[in-house]
Amino acid sequence: LSLPEFKLLRPHTLAEAVDLLGKHPDVQIVAGGTDLVPSLKQHLFTPAYVIDIRRIAELRGIRKLPGLATEIGALTTLTEIENSEHIRRDYPVLHEAAKTVASPILRNMGTLGGNICLDTRCLWYNQSLTWRQSCGFCIKKDGDLCHVAPGGSKCWAVFSGDTPPALLCLDAEIEVVAPAGTRRVALRDFYTNVGDAPMKLARNEVVTRVFLPERTAGYRGVYRKLRLRGSIDYPLAGVAVALKRSNGHVEDARVAITAVNPAPLVVRGVDKALVGSAVTAENATAVGELAARAAKPLTTSALTPEYRREMIRVFAKRAVLEAAKEC
Amino acid sequence: VVTILYSGALLGAIYDIPNVRWDGYRVLTNKPACGAMRGHGTVNVRFAFESALDEVAAALALDPAEVRRINLLKPPCITVNNLRVTSYGLPECVEKVVERSGWRERRGKLPRGRGLGIGCSHYVSGAANSIIRSDMPHSTVNIKIDRDGGVVVYTGASEIGQGSDTMTAQIAAEVLGCGLQRVKIVAADTDLTPIDIGSYSSRVTFMAGNATLRAAQEVKKQIASPAGRKMNCAPEELIFRDDLVFKRGSSVPSAVDSSAVAGRVEGQTLRGSLQQKRKEEAPRDWMTFEEAVVAAIDLHGALTGTGSYAPPPEARGGSHKGGGVGPSPSYSYSAQVADVSVDEETGEITVHKIWAAHDCGRALNPVSVEGQIIGSVWMGLGQALEEEMVWKDGLLMNPGLLEYRSPSATESPEIEPIIVESIDPEGPFGAKECSEGSLAATIPAISNAIYDAVGIRLREVPFTPERVLAAIRARDVAAKKLDLTEGVDPTAPTRFREHGGSLWFKGKGPMRHELDPARQGAQPAGGDD
Fold first, then answer.
1. B511 touches chain A (CB under 8 A)
2. pLDDT confidence of B504, banded at 50, 70, 90?
3. More confident site: B490 or B324
4. Within 10 A of A61 (CB to CB), how many other CB atoms are there?
5. Residue B273 confidence (pLDDT)
6. Coil, strand or helix at A241
7. Confidence of residue B483 (pLDDT cuts 50, 70, 90)
8. What share of chain B in percent tops pLDDT 70?
9. Mutation for testing the A interface, residue in B385, B397, B398, B486 having most A CBs under 10 Å
10. Is B30 on the interface with A (CB under 8 A)?
């Protein structure tokens, strides 16, 4: 396992970075490197250029834009989010999700932008070149078949980010900068649910900012994730819940799931099940049911798919009850 | 082969079992060759056996700790397959963990989903026969002492992080009554050191330790005879302690303040023994270690000694076929209690605490012993909860440390090591094995605790949450049936796994690339394993 040869570019400003992105089509962007570097070593990516954007100071930090939103630079580390009093108070679901990512060391390096743009993962994909060669590669990289769902032509590699379901619950938007210009997209329109092209993001585009709307500030939030170890592991199933209560009744509620589909998904129908009533064991169970129905886990990760779907059900139920209890 | 033979041969050395039948099979597969690993030959068997003992206890409505106590060996004894058991600290181990864990007060009164479980294990202190039966010494050690009082120990025992160099130095220093700082170890350099068959089988402290002990005693004898002459007494009357050699019963004149004395005399000895001789006209009651060494070198010309160890013939097993496997000069014993809780909705297991008592004969270095116990328990914890190699058509699905999960600090429980000293009659200063025996008790202790907590009996490691949940669902007939493991119920494996692999990875085997010749032939993808 050694890094392939590439040229490292280290711009100091966003403008410089965009300029480089325009010049070099065969490029990968690296920030914390916790996801990309192991993949480079496994030769999952063999770019001619790697742009290290860590020096771009303007993309770092959490800012409150009064009356509008909270802006988080894409280079803000997960540790910074975990330690932000503002995030903890106003967007607890993001705080919880950020603090469960991998391990403290990885959170010191990993960035929010990187977590949003995390490559999808699969047992047949995240392996060394020799390993992948020995089974004829897979549809996501170098091959033409899927070992997880043989016969199909879709890639099912699973999205394993922890913060995106929380961001989805908060109606987050992201800013994407490309040589052609800047666009702002709702996070829920960003993911494709296709394993081998998981995001609507061209290779020369970069996610620069995340916006959390004022509207969802103060929502109660809980994030629960399934993993075998208490640390380090990617989620094997994850549920984020954000809800707002008034007078003991739920005014607004969202549930999003991760690590069981090629994209993080907002569970539909949750508002119908919860809004306007108090949270009870019954409607929490109903939410669990809805979440489990949205989950389509396959053998991309450890543990059986049946178990992971079952845990989505249990965790969603528990997370809803937990979020309601906090008030 | 050895692991399978050990699995059967060691069955008799822990409880009193008058009849043993053991069928072992080696199965030829196309997976990589396997080898011996910590506690080999006891780990799998203890899991099965200790679980069975728990089931016996449940069926008879007895306390599981009591069932173990009733069936203890009565050493010294010879087991049914001719293993000689001498020191036996298991009764005390069981007693200690039961006491410390509050077993009697807490068991059965814990909240739902939480339980206590007990497991015991044992291990050899080195195999008495090294592959073949012979009289060849298993360890030989040379010791050389120079005029400056520096002790050099030449040993073939390899330091692999377990502390064998420290152990060797401690034994040499203890016998010679000199400070540890005098001892230098030259280890595992085959140009310089005599033969030692290696650091494995938990044999180093017992065998290389005994060889060191004997070499040091030989040197000590050579020092004692001229020293005795100088002090007008028999060599047997001399005591070696605190860098001094003195007559039994003599008052050592503030010489316990040995550093001052040693410092003063050191200069003299370096200037030569003649000068020193002149100074010591009158007989004295004591000498410093250097003085005694110089006197001995003046007499013998050189001060060297050799010691070796071969297990005694009576500990080498019976003459029946296969009798050469399993015998050891002594056995270590371990008992553990695990405090575990189980989430019945998710199948997740939390190990709160493990009390681990280990009979290591005499703890030559208590810190090392505790470290070995904690390490063994932790490794057992990994095997019990997380670690597993998953194969799919000859491909290891989890070749990296991200997917092959060893416990992280967060889920590692508090471990309370308890040292039990049974003082072995043949070990160096009574010491025996302490590095492998504890591992095998951890897995059944956890599994029995799970049974105590939620009433499910797991027969397969690791106890991943899906296996636990599947077993819980199988227990609750009324609960909604959910096939979590695709017909392969871990509690009743009615059919073989597709590839003898794990539950947690299923799905079809790899489809070959279309250019791969294997895909061109009539062979179905995946083939028959």
1. yes
2. very low
3. B324
4. 13
5. 56
6. strand
7. low
8. 84
9. B397
10. no
Task: Please state, in angstroms and rounded to a whole number, the distance separating the CA atoms of residues B434 and B427.
Answer: 12
Q: How far, in whole angstroms, is CA B72 from its chain's centroid?
A: 20
| Residue B323: count of CB within 10 angstroms of its CB | 17
Q: How far is A147 from chain B (nearest CA, A)?
A: 5
Q: How far is A134 from chain B (nearest CA, A)?
A: 8
CB spacing of B510 vs A147 below 8 angstroms: yes
Tell me if residue B344 falls in helix, strand or coil: coil
What does the pLDDT read at residue A293?
Answer: 95
> Up-side HSE of residue B437: CA atoms within 13 Å toward CB?
35
Q: What pLDDT sits at residue B514? A: 54
The minimal CB distance from B483 to the residues A135, A303, A306 is found for A306
pLDDT of residue B512: 46
CB environment B492-522: b (16+ within 10 A), e (fewer) = eeeeeebbebbbbbbbbbbbbbeeeeeeeee
Count the neighbouring beta carbons within 10 Å of the beta carbon of residue A91.
28
| DSSP labels, B62-101 | --HHHHHHHTB--SSEE-TT--EE----HHHHHHHHHHHT
Residue A305, min C-alpha distance to chain B (Å): 8
Would you say B398 and A234 are in contact if contact means Cβ atoms under 8 Å apart? Answer: no
ipTM of the complex: 0.93
Residue B241 has pLDDT above 80, yes or no: yes
B58 strand-pairing partners: none
A170/A252 Cα distance (integer angstroms): 11
- Residue A29 contacts by C-beta under 8 Å, 6 or more apart in sequence? A21, A50, A51, A53, A206
A residues 210..239 contacting B (CB < 8 A): 226, 228-234
- Give A8's strand partners: A50
pLDDT in tens, A222-260: 999 999 999 999 999 999 999 999 888 999 999 999 999
> What is the model's pLDDT at position A322?
94
